[in-house]
Write a structure and sequence with these properties.
220 residues, alpha/beta, TIM Barrel, 8-stranded parallel sheet, 9 helices, globular, binds pyridoxal-5'-phosphate
Length: 220
């Protein structure tokens, strides 16, 4: 596990203190995750509800982020465990998060997942729909705090090819930051993964989700 420590040091040298590193721990064991926490990781991201449930009791105290698609019927299983949900892309999902958060006396931090280029990627809302979704959530979901946007760029071998789409998302982020509402506190632009986080940061990301560059290749 020595590689985890070395990889983290290398990444942390590149990130200034305004950037939150979410270490993406899907498929890695709780021993590897705890090693990363010992090396200073404060935030971890998982993309499946089931994996959060399996690992939760074995992982040291840390902030948990749900970064993958969330089915409405699974919200209640994780609402008391996660600190932020990055993948909100429908009113229906937000309403369920709101309802379950209320049951736990919790205001859930969420990000709106935007899907900028009209790619036929399955999840995320288009820029046009994001604005309406934000207003609907602010109107009807008092137990949700909207903290920013999340974006997954299409995979390209050359990360330069997604620079333009990161720019578009940053523009939206700046636009929505101006909305004034007690439950809207734009602080996080979650974009950038192992292969494209440097470009994402150059384009204004302040939350990067990095897995394989910390833990090594995933074995599914
Ligand atoms: C897996 C995953 C990541 C991290 O991917 P790496 O290429 O391993 O850094 C980031 N975001 C999401 C939504 C993911 O599912």
């Amino acid at each position: 596990m020595l590689h985890i420590e070395e990889n983290l040091k290398e990444i942390q040298r590149e990130l200034n203190e305004d950037i939150t590193l979410v270490a993406v721990t899907k498929t890695y064991s709780y021993n590897e995750i705890n090693k990363a926490i010992d090396c200073g990781v404060t935030d971890i991201g998982e993309n499946k509800v089931q994996e959060i449930l399996e690992k939760f009791d074995s992982v040291k105290p840390v902030r948990w982020h749900l970064i993958g698609h969330l089915q409405t019927n699974k919200v209640r299983q994780i609402v008391d465990k996660v600190d932020m949900i990055h993948s909100v892309d429908s009113k229906k999902l937000a309403v369920e998060i709101d309802k379950r958060s209320a049951q736990h006396n919790k205001i859930m931090n969420i990000l709106i997942q935007v899907n900028q280029v009209g790619e036929d990627s399955k999840f995320g809302v288009s820029p046009e729909d994001a604005r309406e979704l934000i207003h609907e959530i602010l109107k009807d979901c008092p137990n949700i705090r909207i903290c920013g946007l999340m974006n997954i760029a299409p995979f390209e071998d050359d990360a330069e090819k997604v620079r333009g789409s990161f720019k578009e998302v940053k523009k939206l982020y700046d636009e929505f930051s101006k909305i004034e509402h007690p439950n809207l506190e734009f602080k996080y632009l979650s974009m950038g993964m192992s292969h494209d986080y440097k470009v994402a940061i150059e384009e204004g990301s302040n939350m990067v989700r990095i897995g394989s560059k910390i833990f090594g290749r995933r074995q599914y």
